[in-house]
Amino acid sequence: MALSSAQLYNLQGIRLPADAFVIIVRTEWNSDIVDLLETGCLKVLNDQNVKSKILTVPGVFEIGFAIKNYWDHQKEKDNKPLAFIALGCVLKGDTPHFEYVCNAVTDSINQLNLLLPVPSIYGILTVNNRSQADERTGGAHGNKGEEAAITALKMIELSQSFK
């Protein structure tokens, strides 16, 4: 049985560590769209008292590098993140560049999920036009930044349950 949107957004009963900490890696490219994703993401995290830090990279291609290197430099420290959230937007143009970039960032997030002991959440819009981006940053399809944060919190809880 499929879950409804209300069930997917429900965080009631989610148990998180008191010091839960998430890194948001966001892009400069298409910043007006990514700003809206970030706002939605931070709203959910703040509502759940989850601390966060924002790292900014030029484009989506650089997200995987930022996540891996941040983890490598913080993994032995007390304040290491319990999840990463990748936020960006790739708008389709007239060249195959769109497919190459989308495939590369999807593959890098997938690889990070297999390599790192904490989840990397895919909050990247890959859309054909600005209208589709608007629908996913507070329009008809909600705010995908909020969804990415909710997914991160649920994955943190899942990861913590394995301990």
Q: Can you walk me through this structure?
A:
47% of the residues lie in helices and 22% in strands. It has six helices and six strands, in the order αβαβαβαβαββα. The chain has helices spanning 5-9, 31-47, 63-74, 97-115, 130-135, 144-161, and strands at 21-27, 51-57, 83-91, 120-127, 137-139, 142-143. Helix 4 (97-115) links the parallel strand 3 (83-91) and strand 4 (120-127). The chain is globular. By secondary structure, the chain is an alpha/beta fold. Helix 2 (31-47) packs across helix 6 (144-161) and helix 3 packs parallel to helix 4 (97-115).
Element layout with pairings:
Layout (H helix, E strand, L loop, with lengths): L4 H5 L11 E7 L3 H17 L3 E7 L5 H12 L8 E9 L5 H19 L4 E8 L2 H6 L1 E3 L2 E2 H18 L2
Parallel strand pairs: 1-2, 1-3, 3-4
Antiparallel strand pairs: 5-6
Strand content: 15-25%
Helix tally equals: 6
Instruction: Write down the secondary-structure element order.
Output: HEHEHEHEHEEH
Can you tell me the overall shape?
globular
Radius of gyration: 15 Å
* Helix/strand class: alpha/beta
Q: What is the terminal separation in angstroms?
A: 29 Å
Largest sheet: number of strands, sense, barrel closure: 4 strands, parallel
The overall pLDDT, averaged over residues, is 93
Q: Unreliable stretches, pLDDT < 50, 5 or more residues?
A: none
Major sheet: arrangement of strands: 2-1-3-4
Estimate the helix proportion, in percent.
40-55%
Short description:
By secondary structure, the chain is of the alpha/beta class. The chain contains 6 helices and 6 strands.
Keyword list:
single chain, 163 residues, alpha/beta, 4-stranded parallel β-sheet, two-stranded antiparallel sheet, 6 helices, 6 strands
